[in-house]
Write a structure and sequence with these properties.
- It is a single chain.
- The chain is of the alpha/beta class and about 325 residues long.
- Helices cover about 50% and strands about 15% of the residues.
- The chain contains twelve helices and eight strands.
- The protein has an eight-stranded mixed sheet with strand order 3-2-4-1-5-6-7-8, sandwiched between helices.
- Strand 7 and strand 8 form a beta hairpin.
Amino acid sequence: MALLGLFSKKKKQDLDKGLEKTKQSVFSKLSRAVVGKTKVDDEVLDNLEEVLVTSDVGVNTTIKIIERIEARVSRDKYLDTKELNSILRDEIAQLLKESNNEDGSEFSVPESNEPYVIMVVGVNGVGKTTTIGKLAHQFKQAGKKVVLGAADTFRAAAVDQIQIWGDRVGVTVISQGMGADPASVAFDTLQSAKSSNADVVIIDTAGRLHNKVNLMNELSKIKNVMDKIIPGAPHEILLVLDGSTGQNAIEQAKQFTKATEVNALALTKLDGTAKGGVAIGISDQFQIPVKYIGIGEKMDDLQLFNRTAYVDSLFGGDLG
């Protein structure tokens, strides 16, 4: 089946537009890397290494990609530089860990008698609250009943922002205000979601990283409380990262994956940056699927990550 049958043309156009700055940056660097060359030799590979590192793919992942291309060069003996683009696409697609929603067509959750619980983590300023609001909108559009929990009680603004998004999207928000115990908010949210037969619960959490021990303890406490009400909750621990921060996003991923069992990633603000290559490095380095990407300000500009569509948008090519 052609990928466009699964990944709508409109979504692909939005993705192309959102990744335009990254694509232009990568292509201009790639063109310079192979200028005057007809075959892939050591100099081209050195130049390519620089292109990938400066595109925020990350050093470890870049080395992996270069080694794979070197293996192809030694196997095939002669590789035309014109083939480099398609080879790069192949290798990067292979590296990207597949998300559960590979077709990128639906915001869905597993069928269950209990609500599906998503705990959202990430530092302040990465677009965490906006991502929660957009997620709530997408799930509601998919026919799901959604409840939000304002468990980032460290900042008054965080509680207010969640409420604003809840009102805007038209979903219930459970809140106890600033300074409340986050685990208590999570407890109330899950109790409310169960009694109202909600399908999806999204819990916000505090984003401070200044003390990893406190962060770890707080997230563990919230998780333990939720597990008592809905066994196995949270089902998804979603780390939100600002794609425009490049290597800083990778550093944040290191800290949060140490603090809690992150099993899904959301990359925001990819439309405003040339650092979209960071999705490749983060997915490879942490072996955690990038599940959602933010490519604009509109409510529908949060997409399920589709690795095939992403690679095609990054390196050009038709999905038909």
